[in-house]
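We store chain and fold; example below:
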Amino acid sequence: MKTLGYYNGKYGELDEMTIPMNDRVCWFGDGVYDAGPSRNYKIFAIDEHVDRFFNSAGLLDIKMPVTKGELKALLQEMVDKMDTGNLFVYYQVTRGTGMRNHVFTEGPGNLWIMLKPAEISEGREPIKLITTEDTRFLHCNIKTLNLIPSCMAAEKARKAGCQEAVFYRPGGRVTECAHSNVHILKDGKLVTAPTDNLILPGIARAHLIKICKQLEIPVSETPYTLDDLFNAEEVIVTSSSNLCLHADEIDGKPVGGKNAELLEKIRAALLEEFYEATKED
């Protein structure tokens, strides 16, 4: 199959799938999601993604309709049905189905899955960023379906000819991007925002930190500012779809380009880990 969807036991091509109007996602965006890449029919970092998915659901008191093991088996079963093994594997759970009411619907949630062909960028070409004030709520550590601020920021970036938007809070603290984590190299050290309630604890972020430690590159999980971002040796953007991108421009001003050797060392190691974990048997 070229694309594949799943909803509570029903399968089909994505453009053929339908959902009940009373699914709470329609009224409240009431749910959480997770996603990651597959290569050669192998889902990368599946345990980490599923753990985060269940954690997000637990923080919102959503009752999961499957166990972790059942979900991982279902995802792999669906990947194996596809025409290509290089995919974007997305899954979400909504609180359930019922008449519109702010009070929670009782019972298990509704499970959605979406698969489509996708390739991981090797991150060799630099990207351009813009900055925008972070006006989102204070639960950014939960991967909810309420992504309007991120969508608005992503569209703002597109109109500016950029690939991503960097959020900052009052006082200039950098948090993350519209759909990525952002980090800097400063004095030969990786600096990345701490995993408090203002950022999503990215799986790619965790792999970046792990790789840096393996390479004996110091890591500081501390808040940093817009001034730090603009004056960084390098600016790194990570997500499950793009494991290691780097920026050469923010708000039309040149950035980075001061420690290309260290950047390349990190990028190559991250891609090597991904290719090794998803190589053909």
User: Anything to note?
Assistant: The helical segments are 24-28, 46-59, 68-80, 148-159, 203-214, 226-230, 260-277. The mean pLDDT is 97.
